[in-house]
């Protein structure tokens, strides 16, 4: 950067700094965002394709989940990273709709590029986009349908919509039944229904097919019993959850025990054995016949527990202990001295099973279990991972529906309705913002357009049909990707949570506005490593 009034240049930035300003900066940023959107655009909808991502270690991921694709590919461009952040926000807030939000953001910037070419100032476009985004929230809330959050039929249709086009599609009937039941099971009825996704454990094991996936009314642990003589199956289990070790305690300070006589040694060993035996006696006296211990279990304790037909597992994770407490109604005990029968939980069956050559413990048939497990099966790890991602998306959708009880149809119907209403809204605006609102309205059409393109149909014909249907009052007219015609998406059961759409439109508008307002990109040079043997920060001699 130089002083124009001086012949001698004045440098205020390091010489290796890269700087892009004005139109070039805007074009570069918009191009980067559009490229990210193009990367995931082909995965949208029931006919969307998959991506194979191979990392530097040769690990392979096959998916069409937008969030997973953007998380796994290495992106260096700072603007592209902003688009990835939007996908992460959508994933954490709703759990679904990541591809939609990225495609919308890319199209909003593409439409803005045309306005910039017409010499419309970026702040005018940003203001128009902000107005359109606020209006879009109102429109979406007005067209949304209110449902009963406990309506299993509707919940199943929402699950099926979330899973269509993903690896789980072959068994979506079964999986939607499992997911909807799991979500209703773990819902807490305090001030309305609330669901914590942490209470639905997803366990993955290769073997069998996707249709062998099962819901367990309880918890599956990737553990095995600590002693071979313990029973493999316990019916009418009374479960003790112990957050303490069943071992002889060591002193917290360094201590020495001095033994001067061999008989003292035997007495010391006998005392240690008695302490361990007392621990087992306390457990047996409480009525517990199953123990899940967060810490270690001494070999001698294992022997005594086996003799008393008590099933035990050790080193159980804290998160699993909490889920077991919710599933069985047990209290986590920190001190054996305070143990009573009221601290125990109940389960119909606790059994050790061999799944894919690995031992697993099933804690099942829990009455009113508030934590459940979905055991996902499939032919390969890649299939299982993709099915698990589809299940997570479906769970996110159901939680969003249960949260506010509002849904919209899918298949591009809400976006066409949004576009139509926003165009009417734009016509009433007096200034140049009208152009930005119209551009926002046009950008919404990218979703039905992409659905049609990914299904191999002509998007122009389909969009013309959709617009005509919406103009005649059919607000749920959407793209039928199997026939290339329009359909009533609501009647056909293509349903999505309202929150997926409101969050996607809001986030896409915000990131588009932020990128549009950047007119100067200053990239610092790569810091040179100091010569060998010289401490960092020291100038070379």
Report on the structure:
This protein has 541 residues and is of the alpha+beta class. The protein has helices at 22-41, 66-72, 78-93, 98-117, 122-143, 152-163, 172-186, 262-286, 299-307, 318-328, 381-404, 413-427, 433-444, 446-454, 459-471, 498-516, and strands spanning 18-21, 51-54, 60-63, 145-146, 188-189, 193-194, 200-206, 214-216, 219-221, 233-242, 290-293, 311-313, 332-333, 345-355, 358-364, 372-378, 406-409, 477-480, 485-488, 495-497, 520-523. Helix content is 46%, strand content 17%.
Structure characteristics:
single chain; 541 residues; GROEL, domain 1; GROEL, domain 2; GroEL; 7-stranded mixed β-sheet; 46% helix; disordered C terminus
Quaternary state of the chains: single chain
CATH homologous superfamily descriptor of the largest domain? GroEL-like equatorial domain
Radius of gyration: 30 Å
Please give the alpha-carbon distance between the first and last residues: 28 Å
How many E strands? 21
Number of domains: 3
What's the architecture of the largest domain, going by CATH?
Answer: Orthogonal Bundle
Q: How much helix is in the residues?
A: 40-55%
Extract low-pLDDT stretches.
Answer: 533-541
Binned strand content: 15-25%
The average pLDDT is 80
Largest sheet: 7 strands, mixed
Briefly, what CATH class of the largest domain?
A: Mainly Alpha
